[in-house]
């Protein structure tokens, strides 16, 4: 029997855990860019295969529903396997998925390759959330989650916009090929710099009586993501309807993602101090920005201004719900991560599918109204679930 790998103990400070946090941040960047790249290239992919914008939007749905269905069973089925090896396997699968999309001869092949990416994603975020929780002591969980989530923000800030700009200028296939290369390099860096961790430590054991709090956290997560992705999946279509030029969509997405760093900074500063107040404030601003977007549409200036606030507020959302779910101790960090991952992707996939329906029936102008209503429902749950978001 081979010896167990050497594992690290939870660090007592963020600088002590910096190497592992940076490695996870890089991996998260590759993962979120892979997941969301079709959003920026939706019109071009549709034109290439002669399918509608709504049909291409369903690529996000297929991907997300694979995650929603498989996150928990894959996490439970692999719970005894080394965490680092599993994480590297998911990154290798992202590489293959993007490479196949880049050369796909038919839309069905694109959908199949995206399904492979969805399987990898089902395990990746469950692992990364649990991994981040094990790198630091419990009182630093919020900051560690926010820093790792910086990889997701970087995906929105740099990955998706730059890939969109590249795809618009030189072809969407090249964008996916470049992303496959980025995933390959990221895999090598994570292999070199991410320390192994134990599957459990004294802070990971679940408390059965806290499962209702965990349920409240992941339910709210699903509702908020549903509201977000009803709109965000079709942001390229929305921007084009306001008169934004096709070759400028990537630049707008770059600005939206950059503003998301403000929300990330806020969550890193406040989640370990005032988690409930932070959640309420972020969701209230997110709701208001979507209402403003709906009112302003199709005025280009008003839409861009509302989108800026929308992007900034959503930057804080992921770390808020990840931290809340892990801190409830209603399950181990991996299982809590799997539930956050699954419910987020129920929201992402459901938002893409619901948005496609609304786009067909009522037009793009109806999307922000629906998104605002759903995020407001999430805010109501946060206000009611006091114990879930307590310090």
UniProtKB/TrEMBL annotation:
Alphabetical list of PANTHER family matching this protein: CHLORAMPHENICOL EFFLUX PUMP RV0191 (PTHR43124:SF3), PURINE EFFLUX PUMP PBUE (PTHR43124)
Protein name (record): Putative MFS-type transporter
One Gene Ontology CC term in the entry: plasma membrane
Record keyword Cytoplasm present: no
Record InterPro entries: MFS, MFS_dom, MFS_Efflux_Transporters, MFS_trans_sf
Keyword Iron-sulfur applies: no
Membrane topology: Multi-pass membrane protein
Molecular function in Gene Ontology: transmembrane transporter activity
Subcellular localization(s) per the UniProt record: Cell membrane
Major subcellular site: membrane
Lineage summary: Bacteria, Bacillati, Actinomycetota, Actinomycetes, Micrococcales
Chain ranges of the Major facilitator superfamily (MFS) profile domain: 20-389
Pfam families (alphabetical): MFS_1
Ranges that cross the membrane: 21-42, 54-74, 86-109, 115-133, 145-164, 170-194, 214-236, 248-266, 278-297, 303-326, 338-360, 366-385
Entry keywords, A to Z: Cell membrane, Membrane, Transmembrane, Transmembrane helix
